[in-house]
Design brief:
Oligomer: single chain
Number of domains: 1
Distance between the termini: 17 Å
CATH topology: Maf protein
Structural class: alpha/beta
Radius of gyration: 17 Å
Strand content: 15-25%
Length: 217
Amino acid sequence: MAARKLNGKVLVVATHNAGKVREIGQLIAPFGLTARSAAELGLDEPDETGVTFEENAYTKAHAAAVATGLPSLADDSGLCVAALDDAPGVYTADWAEQADGSRDFQMAMQKVEDKLAECGANDPAQRGAMFVATLCLCWPDGHAEYFRGEVQGQMIWPPTGTQGFGYDPVFLPKGEDRTFGQMSAEEKHGWTPGGDEPLSHRSRAFDKFAAACLENE
């Protein structure tokens, strides 16, 4: 069954994460779409109680779509480290949460490294990981489309690079010699309509989303 096409020029991006809004805004720009974030619209963040990326993405996208009456796009993404049984996974952001509700990703990166050390994962071959991103496009009537992207790589230490956000400075994508934290947004995404497969997990998910819901409008 063909995916439902997205009409209109405004897309609600159901997140309060400025980094994600910036990345998605850059990706939708070639289609003449404007991103408006949940934070900009004063929307509350719903509780993410799902145990999969898809469940959490739907929770956020559906809440924003109902609140605004507009199609809403949510991303739920995370870092899955093989030696840690794919943790932190859907709890990736939670590992950065502090007592006051703010997030400290330096602390989160250190936590991952400490747990890798605890299980003796010191050799590069033992430090495999992947970033996963699931995009959910949801309409106010509850209809949803899902798009998943993954990128394989390995964990490195110490953190290297100051670009990107989250765990980017400790993730070395497969086949690359620089972390996500050392790459510009253009290098990290590497996406153009109809181009080669992009690099990042989010842009790979977006590539599928664009092909299904945006192209050939």
